[in-house]
Automatic annotation (TrEMBL):
Gene Ontology MF terms in the entry: N-acylneuraminate cytidylyltransferase activity
Coiled-coil stretches noted in the UniProt entry, renumbered to this chain: none
Descriptive protein name: Acylneuraminate cytidylyltransferase family protein
Keywords (A to Z) from UniProt: Nucleotidyltransferase, Transferase
Classification via InterPro entries: CMP-NeuNAc_synthase, Cytidylyl_trans, Nucleotide-diphossugar_trans
Highest rank taxon of the organism: Bacteria
Organism: Aquimarina algicola
Gene3D superfamilies tied to this protein: Spore Coat Polysaccharide Biosynthesis Protein SpsA, Chain A
Length: 227
């Protein structure tokens, strides 16, 4: 398996301004992901896709080379991940570097460690479209998820269960790890993949920083981890 690691980090962030380089316990948020990636992959195979000079600077301080700057049209709120990933793949292919697998690591998952990436990689093979990290969802369509029909709520999925522990488990993507078959990615978007395997992570390792509350919780967890 020849893998390209892509860490997408655009400059704009509404929930937490300058989130990707905001200091978390003394170092930029993106550094946590870069450090995990460098424990498993050569820096030549790690790509920071960014439109922001400050993010590029901090990434270089963490030991990476910045091979290109992401085009402005791929750094807007409406730009899709699919297009961003294809742009990165095309850049390397034009340089004569061809990969069969893409490892997408979002910088908003500081508790995702190299061991998690390694374990997810062990689940991957070229017969699937993707291995994706998930966590068990507290919300369940058989139990506490509802849809509205004619002004009334009904359970999202029918089931005759009397105990919560008997209900089928459901999972949600936690945004930490995507191991993607590049052949599949070139055919269609991640949301259209049919052959997807899960890699389950715990609640803390799945922490994804989206807003100020997430950030505060993360700071407390890191302090507790250190102490």
């Amino acid at each position: 398996m020849k893998a390209l690691v892509v860490i997408p980090a655009r400059g704009g962030s509404k929930g937490i301004p300058k989130k990707n380089i905001k200091p978390l316990n003394g170092k930029p948020l993106i550094s946590y992901t870069i450090e995990s990636a460098l424990q498993l992959f050569s820096k030549e195979d790690i790509c920071i896709s960014t439109d922001c000079d400050d993010i590029a600077f901090e990434s270089e301080k963490s030991g990476l080379d910045i091979h290109f700057k992401r085009p402005t049209e791929l750094a807007t709120d409406t730009a899709g991940t699919h297009e961003v990933l294809l742009h990165a793949i095309n850049f390397y292919e034009e340089k004569g570097n061809f990969y069969d697998t893409l490892v997408l690591l979002q910088p908003t998952s500081p508790f995702r460690k190299s061991k998690h990436i390694k374990e997810a990689l062990e689940l991957y093979n070229s017969d699937v479209d993707m291995v994706v990290s998930v966590k068990e969802s507290k919300s369940n369509p058989y139990y506490n998820l509802f849809e509205e029909e004619q002004g009334l709520l009904k359970k999202s999925k029918d089931g005759h269960y009397t105990r919560r522990q008997d209900i089928p488990k459901v999972y949600e993507y936690n945004g930490a790890i995507y191991i993607i078959n590049i052949r599949s990615l070139k055919k269609g978007k991640i949301s259209a993949f049919n052959k997807v395997k899960k890699y389950v992570m715990d609640e803390i390792s799945s922490m994804d920083l989206d807003n100020h509350l997430d950030w505060k919780i993360c700071e407390l967890l890191i302090k507790d981890e250190i102490n």
